[in-house]
Amino acid sequence: MSLEVPLSQQGRCAVHPDLPAGGTCFRCGSFICADCTTSVPGLGVRLYCQACAARPDVNYLEALRQRYQGKRDGWAWVVAGVTLLLCVATAAALSQWGLRATKEALFTLVLLIPVPVGVAFFLGRRWARHALVATPLVMAVVADALAPSGRFLFFLCAMPGLITAARIHRDVRNQLFFRLPVPPAMLKVLWNERFNNPMARQASRFGFSALFMPMLAPVAVICGVVALKRVDPKATPPIGRRDQALMGLVLGLVSPLLWGAVLLLWLSDRIHF
Ligand SMILES: [Zn+2]
Ligand SMILES: [Zn+2]
Predict the structure, then answer these.
(1) How far does the centroid of ligand 1 lie from the alpha carbon of residue 54, in Å?
(2) Is residue 129 within 8 Å of 169, Cβ to Cβ?
(3) How confident is the model at residue 47, as a pLDDT?
(4) Which residues have CB less than 5 Å away from ligand 2 (the ion)?
(5) Cα 1 to averaged position of ligand 1 atoms, centre (Å)
(6) Regions of the chain where pLDDT drops below 50
(7) What pLDDT was estimated at residue 272?
(8) Which own/partner contact pairs does 119-124 have at CB distance under 8 Å and 24+ positions apart?
């Protein structure tokens, strides 16, 4: 809409007075020329002047990136915790059995394989991201070399580690900790998960739970109402999840009716006999 200004009324760019304005900034309304016109990832067709596009409340995906870039996420602390546990377990095993040149004593040392990877991961070294995925397999291969009879068990034990490590490898928030270039589309997914009306998701969760536990129905209704009020597709950034908010509200209202009907049927059965 803002681009369709009739030629006769066309203004001049606020920054470049010698250039005709092609439109107005969505936020501040000042005239912008073609050079100044900036689109912001995640905000669809809206166009901004360069000053407004740089604001953290407008360029919310960039603000999100700066907020989390280089900051340790939950996974970094989980990896650090597991690393510490492995060190303690190895120390306990060694103090119990001592370090002898037997295969059993060497077996204990398999637990130490992930320690350098875990430390590097916590410190934000990028190679450790990939090494973390390989570590469970390396441990299984080494354990297998020491005791071939347990091959199936070792690889079975490695599977949960492998799956978790692959999940961490794909995690956008964790990639921000490692300062990897994350495209706006993936930042949008992260923003959607954490900041796009989380109350609506709670409402739908409580709504479904209320079908089985009717005492949760009021919580679902309250969350649903609050979440519905927060929905604002015109805001910057746009707040959505109207469907989930409505779902929570409706389920919260339906659940007591269902349970009431069941109770009435049961009571009427009792009274007749
Ligand atoms: Zn502006
Ligand atoms: Zn301009």
Answers:
(1) 9
(2) yes
(3) 93
(4) 13, 15-16, 33, 35-36
(5) 16
(6) 1, 8
(7) 67
(8) 119/83, 121/76, 121/79, 121/80, 122/72, 122/76, 122/77, 122/79, 122/80, 122/83, 124/70, 124/72, 124/76, 124/177, 124/178, 124/179
